[in-house]
Design a protein that fits this description.
Layout lengths: L3 E6 L6 H15 L2 H5 L3 E6 L5 H8 L5 E5 L16 H6 L4 E4 L2 H6 L4 H13 L3 E6 L3 H5 L3 H12 L5 H4 L3 E4 L13 H18 L2 H5 L2 E5 L7 H5 L6 E4 L6 H8 L3
Parallel strand pairs: 1-2, 1-8, 2-3, 3-4, 4-5, 5-6, 6-7, 7-8
The structure holds 2-phosphoglycolic acid.
């Protein structure tokens, strides 16, 4: 079901103690306001792996706050030193997992084919994948951005059955906007989100497309969130840098 979601991707930041402080501050600032605004509004926190179960314990009583992992492996278990599987993440209390973040695609050379396997593994373990797609700057400049997104969707998630696809969230994160302070304009975000929805309608059907939650990510902050979220096809945000400051993050959550 389509929801309003603000997800905080903490990436590789914060010590354990700092992470606990951050989550407590966020909890306090949000109070009961998340529930009051909108029944379909959710907050997702995506801390580093070692903090998941502890943070889950702290947020457990608030059913509007969910936990995501930042990545998972495609295999359930085995000799993959340093990797973490989807069932492990689920057993630690996370309900979501980010798949295909551009930093994974770039630094860890994750291909669409590998991401398709991770998506399958996540769904099999009962995790909801937050599938990221986004073009690099040269692709945008050469007006190749729609083709790039089309291909990432086709090869990463369009092998899924209708039933499985309906569980997914999609995040559009133009790579040129991530951590750069440059944000897509509300019009650019809306244009691409509408395009993504059209691709989903073409592959599955209009009803599934209309029910898919599509988040925007890339230098989204407390100042631009309202304008971005006001677009009809933007259902919220995947927030990096601004999710590390409780007051910034809470303002973004309250931007719907
Ligand atoms: P940013 O990161 O908000 O710091 O640009 C977004 C993301 O990588 O998810």
């Amino acid at each position: 079901m389509r929801k309003k979601i603000v997800a905080g991707n903490w990436k590789m930041n914060k010590s354990f103690d700092e992470a606990i402080t951050l989550v407590n501050e966020i909890k306090e600032l949000l109070g009961s306001s998340i529930g009051l605004q909108n029944d379909d509004c959710l907050v997702i926190l995506s801390p580093p792996f070692p903090y998941i179960s502890h943070i889950r314990k702290i947020t457990k009583e608030n059913d509007k706050i969910k936990i995501a992992a930042q990545n998972c492996h495609s295999e359930e278990k085995g000799a993959f030193t340093g990797e973490v599987s989807a069932p492990m993440i689920r057993s630690a209390g996370a309900e979501y997992v980010i798949i295909g973040h551009s930093e994974r695609r770039t630094y860890f050379k994750e291909t669409n084919e590998f991401l398709a396997k991770k998506t399958d593994a996540a769904l099999k373990a009962g995790l909801i994948p937050i599938f990221c797609c986004g073009e690099i700057l040269p692709d945008r400049k050469n007006e190749n951005h729609f083709n790039v997104i089309k291909r990432q969707l086709k090869e990463g998630v369009f092998h899924l059955s209708e039933n499985d696809f309906m569980k997914m969230l999609v995040a559009y994160e133009p790579v040129w906007a991530i951590g750069t302070g440059v944000t897509a304009t509300p019009a650019q975000a809306q244009e691409m989100h509408a395009f993504i929805r059209k691709q989903i309608a073409g592959k599955y059907n209009r009803q599934i497309a209309d029910n898919t939650t599509i988040l925007y990510g890339g230098s989204c902050n407390s100042k631009n969130a309202k304008e971005l979220f006001a677009n009809p096809d933007v259902d919220g945000g995947l927030i990096g840098g601004a999710s590390l400051i409780a007051s910034e993050f809470a303002t973004i959550v309250n931007s719907f």
